[in-house]
User: Which sequence fits this backbone?
């Protein structure tokens, strides 16, 4: 089934979607986490057909036994989780409003590393070996997973207001294709591009804004940012119900905010989630509007 000309994911969550990610290659699974306390996984075919595979509560299911495992705890809410896989180790990384970043061996309840952050964590991204963490103090902290004992580097954002999302991007001109910088999006309807080398080249630009009849602008937050895995081009989504691909293509306005987005490993499918993000308060919540996840072919658009 198509919706807005895109393919609709079958059996979506019953509440707003707070996380959306594709699996690494060569598999093509889509995973969503929702405010209804569930994590859902679908297999995705290139034709747009989706098949539900796993549904579980928010813990760590052991896939071989279908049992839930308690890994460990934070002293405040956990903002995000990332599975880290390298040539020498595998681990789980969690970031929290308790101002810590923890790295876990999933076989032990004691974290391998417990790193202090300057403030509450608002967003995180990983592009091995780099970790970038957005904090409430309007700073971005970066770590090298290969050199955690060397400490962190703190960068002040070019955005003036609270940041909401971050995406690391590759150096396409280097042999290693390692991290070259990151993009952050904030509540002020702007996105900032930060380079790790040549910080003077960093810049910010406006997005997710619309004009009013009075001559003013409606300014919307940037809910999510993602980079294309092949072309390194940028996708952004916002409460205005619009997704933008590489600042060249903007979708038609959807009837709900776009809360999250992701791009699959080979760069052919752009997935985005529709659902109320509470940006306009409880008085604008409509229980008749159900969350949706849609798939958009993007390889040519972002190329």
Assistant:
């Amino acid at each position: 089934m198509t919706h807005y000309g895109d393919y609709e994911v079958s059996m979506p969550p019953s509440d707003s979607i707070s996380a959306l990610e594709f699996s690494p290659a060569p598999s093509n699974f889509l995973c969503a986490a929702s405010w209804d306390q569930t994590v859902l996984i679908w297999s995705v075919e290139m034709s747009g057909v989706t098949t539900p595979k796993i549904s579980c509560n928010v813990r760590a299911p052991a896939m071989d036994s279908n049992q839930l495992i308690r890994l460990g705890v934070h002293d405040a809410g956990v903002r995000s989780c990332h599975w880290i896989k390298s040539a020498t180790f595998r681990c789980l990384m969690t970031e929290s409003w308790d101002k810590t970043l923890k790295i876990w061996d999933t076989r032990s309840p004691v974290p391998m590393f417990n790193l202090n952050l300057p403030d509450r964590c608002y967003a995180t991204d990983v592009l091995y070996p780099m970790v970038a963490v957005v904090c409430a103090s309007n700073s971005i902290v970066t770590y090298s997973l290969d050199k955690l004992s060397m400490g962190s580097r703190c960068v002040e954002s070019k955005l003036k207001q609270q940041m909401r999302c971050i995406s690391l991007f590759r150096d396409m001109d280097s042999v290693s294709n390692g991290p070259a910088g990151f993009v952050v999006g904030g509540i002020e309807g702007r996105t900032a591009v930060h380079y790790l080398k040549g910080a003077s080249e960093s810049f910010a630009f406006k997005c997710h804004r619309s004009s009013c009849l009075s001559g003013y602008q409606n300014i919307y937050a940037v809910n999510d940012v993602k980079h294309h895995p092949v072309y390194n081009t940028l996708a952004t989504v916002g409460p205005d119900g619009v997704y933008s691909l590489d600042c060249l293509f903007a979708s038609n306005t959807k009837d709900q905010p776009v809360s999250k987005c992701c791009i699959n490993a080979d760069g052919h499918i752009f997935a985005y989630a529709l659902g109320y993000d509470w940006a306009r308060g409880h008085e604008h919540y409509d229980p008749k509007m159900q969350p949706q996840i849609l798939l958009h072919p993007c390889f040519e658009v972002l190329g």
